Amino acid sequence: MRWRFTLGWMSVTVVALATGAGFGVAALCGATFYSIVSLKPLIALGVQVDDCIITVNTPANATGSIEERLEESIRESGPCITTTSLTTVVCFAIGTSSSLPGISFCMYATAVLFFGWFFQVTFFYACVVIDEKRMERSADCIACCFTITSSVDVEKHNPSSSFKTDTTVQEAFGRYADVLLQPVVSLIVVLLFVGIASVAGELASDISVCLPLEDILSDDSFVRPAFATEKKVFKVRATPVTSVVQSENFNELETRQCFRKAIAGVGQVENIVVVLPNWMDAYEARQGGSYTGAYLKDMQPFLASTQGAHWRSHVT
Questions:
Q1: Which of 117, 119, 123, 110 is nearest to 25 (CA)?
Q2: Hey, how many other C-beta atoms are within 10 angstroms of the C-beta on 3?
Q3: What pTM value is reported for the model?
Q4: Whole-number average pLDDT of the chain
């Protein structure tokens, strides 16, 4: 009868209610739902369940009537829960000012955490009162309408004192603490920790410092089709390729024609969307398409100009 099984599920219900209300309000405000937003309920679960544990544990250690215990619980846990929840809400609310589309996650997080706090101080407090009354009448934690009776005399006690009595689990942890505090065991634990830390530090140097872009993109990102095409064509992430032309005289018309033919051939390759500009087009555009004498006689002034600065690494 002293188990808080039902309250455990009510804490999860708080997260479900907050998620539904928060997602609804954020969508009503026009926030785009990206795939990363689906992780928000897991974050809310960790935050809200922790608040629920604080709320439940406070009246368990108090004395007096149900009203007095709940009053003390709200007085002690209320400010703590409100402060932590609202500071988190404010932080995510500030994040909504970002111009990045994926930051709509902050809008969903703001709404979910706000409603998590709201249902915490309304719905869950009511659940705690109901559960305290159940414990007072010695009813079962699952089927609350059944009262547990015994043929033996049971010492009347305050429901809150049930959390202060020794249990098998508490006794086991007590023995574990006695063993852990022995000097020899403490030394072994320290040496084990140092060994694990040393191995972790050694292995950390082998970690590849790289985060694939696919891991930080939403499923509906327009960049994913580009990566899919890249993988289909090149099998792996594409590597820039540079073609070097040596021992060719670009003063000859035939050499220039072959060069242009090679560039045009690149444009015919499948999945090539655009052909990047080349130094020859930029050079001829500056010359106006007219030449007197050798083709490359004005190359040095071209490379020295602002227009030709980009092509200095392309022509030697």
A1: 110
A2: 13
A3: 0.49
A4: 75
Q: What is the pLDDT of residues 206-235, one digit of tens each?
A: 655 555 666 666 667 777 787 777 777 766
> How far does CA 267 lie from the centroid of its chain?
41
Query: Phi/psi class of residue 137: alpha, beta or left (left: φ > 0; alpha: ψ in -120 to 50)?
Result: alpha
DSSP class of 275: P
DSSP string computed for 64-95: S-HHHHHHHHHHHHHHHHHHHHHHHHHHHHHH
Give residue 156's pLDDT band: very low, low, confident or very high (50, 70, 90).
very low
Confidence band for 133, pLDDT divided at 50, 70 and 90? confident
Q: Do residues 44 and 113 make contact, with C-beta atoms less than 8 angstroms apart?
A: yes
- Residue 264 CA to residue 244 CA, distance in Å, equals 16
With CA atoms as reference, report the closest residue to 201 among 191, 193, 189: 193
Q: Which of 136, 127, 137, 134 is nearest to 158 (CA)?
A: 136
